Amino acid sequence: VPLSIRSFAIGAGMGFLLSAFIVLIISMTGGGNFNFQFERFSDYLRYMIPLIVFLLIAALGEEWIFRGYPLSRLSQAVKPGWANVLVSLVFMAGHWGGSGWNVLSATNIFLFSMLLGALRFTRGGIPLAWGFHFTWNSFYVMTGTALSGEKFTVPFIDFIYTGPVWLSGGLYGPEGSIIASFALMIAIISIQRYLKFRPLNEEIENKRLSL
């Protein structure tokens, strides 16, 4: 299996598990609950397949725009960590607004970008970050929750928010929840600990050495 495909698959698995964990904890702590319309499952499949393709392409586009060339170039001028912070601030600004936008959701978008940047600096590179980004977005849409303040009218399943905004994320979706804050911080710390035993992406390392 080519490294890029394997990296994408690993990233996709990580993104799925983390987003599922966040939604599970939100529902278990009273932040919301699912509402199913089982008779509309066939409608769900017809609706979701083209949307998943769109999310796949959109995630790749965002990764190239934010963590492709710009992050590589910045990493030649400043330390990779600071480059990641700068790109993440721009990423957060690019996602400004949307229903339910507040300080907590803005912070979580910043943390999400920092996590993707950390994945970008591993040997998995862009494919790893792309896979994570894709399933992170897809899981929220597929389960009827809002994605960055955008609520899709999904047949078959809907997520009804019943708890306070800080717990449920409210109109912004799980990305606006304090649960997401803790999950993202733990994931970032775990990846940074992993990176201590792995060199940065060879592409960036070679460019820094050639200066």
Describe it for me?
The chain has 211 residues and is mainly alpha-helical. The protein has 9 helices and 2 strands. It has helices spanning 3-28, 41-67, 69-77, 80-94, 103-120, 125-142, 165-168, 178-195, 202-210, and strands spanning 32-36, 157-161. It has a two-stranded antiparallel ribbon with strand order 1-2. Helix 2 runs antiparallel to helix 6. The two termini are 34 Å apart.
Short description:
The protein is mainly alpha-helical. The protein is built from nine helices and two strands; from the N terminus they run H-E-H-H-H-H-H-E-H-H-H. About 2% of the residues have low confidence.
- Low-confidence parts, pLDDT < 50 over ≥5 residues? 197-201
- Mean pLDDT rating: 89
Count of DSSP helices?
Answer: 9
**Secondary-structure content class:** mainly alpha
- Give the strand line-up of the largest sheet: 1-2
The percentage helix is: 55-70%
Beta strands, count: 2
State the major sheet.
2 strands, antiparallel
How widely separated are the two ends? 34 Å
User: Per DSSP, what share of the residues sits in E-state strands of 2 or more residues?
Assistant: under 5%
Question: If you compute it from the alpha carbons, what radius of gyration comes out, rounded to the nearest whole angstrom?
Answer: 17 Å
> What is the overall silhouette?
globular
Give, in order, the helices and strands. Answer: HEHHHHHEHHH
